[in-house]
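Researcher: I need the complex structure. Ligand is heme C. Inputs:
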Amino acid sequence: MKQAIGAVVLVAAVVAGFIMWIAADVAPRAAFIPYAAPSQKMEPDYLRAVYSPLHFQPAIRTATDAQCLSCHSEVVEDRVRDASPAGQKTERMLAWYQRTPTYAGGQDTFHRRHLLTPLAKRLMHLQCNTCHQGHDPREEAQGATADAAQQDDISYTLRKQVNPETTCLKCHGAFPWQLMGLPGPWEEHKAAFGNNCLTCHAAIRTQRHELTYLNAEAIEQAGKDSGDACHGCHGGRSWYRISYPYARTPWPGMPADMPEWAKNRPTQSEARFLKPVAAQGGKP
Ligand code: HEC
Ligand code: HEC
Ligand code: HEC
Ligand code: HEC
Ligand code: HEC
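Model: Output:
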């Protein structure tokens, strides 16, 4: 009899335990904010903001970061969680590109890594409209209507208003070692060049980075300290297997004969990023 009571008590305890465990898992968690439908009164203001002229050309071209941030402060204020919902600590979950020699500080959001980290502020001067180019009010997907962008147009901007091929690819493309006459990828051969791109680039393609969104001088200084800084934007964080077909800006002592691969290259960077003096036709 004692044993039977013991067994019943044990089973009851286990069942109760299970019920409590499941209930705790089903209960709403403080960390997740429940959805609240916006009030009807807010609707006109919301639509006015969505169709703000700042989301379209031409206003977006001259928009300042402060104008965008007056509504979108979340893009620079939001921070990553300390831990994933499953409890994995953020600081212990670094991806390969967060183990590069130039990576510093805790994990951070995409926007903050491009606008606010010490490395970003030293080497670059990106603005909202460097990347965000505004909506096409008619159709943002290629080939969807007769007058939409053609199917083979690769400016896949959609609602984020960013064309990855003309922004991200410039700094996150593969390292084009073949064009440089190197025997293989930089990781494998950098020791032979003292991990220094300037071994060659003190004399080759020396007219570079004189653009509004890059800090040319600081980049050269960082490159003198280590090739890791240069490699960071030219293969070290490549999300692509292709590399960007850079403009081939003429440089002093440039050889007269042009390599085959360079035949279709522009000789000047995208006009919208040229510094005023260069845009007037002067040499940077
Ligand atoms: C008057 C306030 C306001 C201003 C100013 C403003 N936005 Fe917006 N923006 C909005 C609202 C509201 C939405 C719609 C958000 C939603 O529905 O989730 C939006 C949407 C967006 C989106 C798409 C978001 C998504 O999740 O698809 C991007 C990108 C964006 N804005 C960028 C910008 C940029 C860049 C600027 C400055 C040139 C700017 N906005 C200026 C209010 C504003
Ligand atoms: C380096 C390029 C780049 C810069 C600079 C940039 N953005 Fe973005 N932004 C993007 C991309 C790409 C996305 C889409 C990200 C995604 O879908 O996760 C995005 C997404 C957004 C969104 C949608 C919400 C979100 O977080 O996904 C808003 C709003 C936005 N950006 C506003 C801004 C504002 C305001 C600035 C300037 C302070 C800015 N962006 C600077 C590339 C950029
Ligand atoms: C002008 C150069 C430049 C452009 C353009 C650029 N990036 Fe970056 N990106 C960087 C640099 C530099 C870092 C490293 C920043 C750091 O370590 O603080 C970085 C870091 C990143 C990271 C890693 C963030 C992390 O958590 O460590 C991602 C993801 C990324 N970029 C995606 C993009 C995408 C997507 C675009 C296009 C919308 C883009 N980048 C455009 C230079 C650029
Ligand atoms: C052995 C010499 C050598 C070394 C070392 C070298 N490069 Fe180059 N690089 C070249 C040559 C040669 C070219 C092509 C010049 C031309 O346009 O005719 C080139 C071209 C480039 C281009 C332009 C590619 C294009 O498609 O237009 C970039 C970007 C570049 N190098 C970056 C780097 C970086 C970053 C490093 C270090 C991580 C580096 N290079 C190391 C010789 C070198
Ligand atoms: C912050 C990111 C970044 C860093 C760091 C960086 N680059 Fe670049 N580099 C770029 C971008 C973006 C372009 C393309 C600019 C344009 O559109 O013309 C470029 C273009 C070039 C070009 C082609 C220039 C031309 O017009 O012919 C060469 C060569 C080059 N970089 C070499 C280097 C070397 C060497 C270093 C280190 C001293 C370096 N880069 C560091 C982002 C970077």
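Model: Summary of the prediction. The two ends are 96 Å apart (CA to CA).
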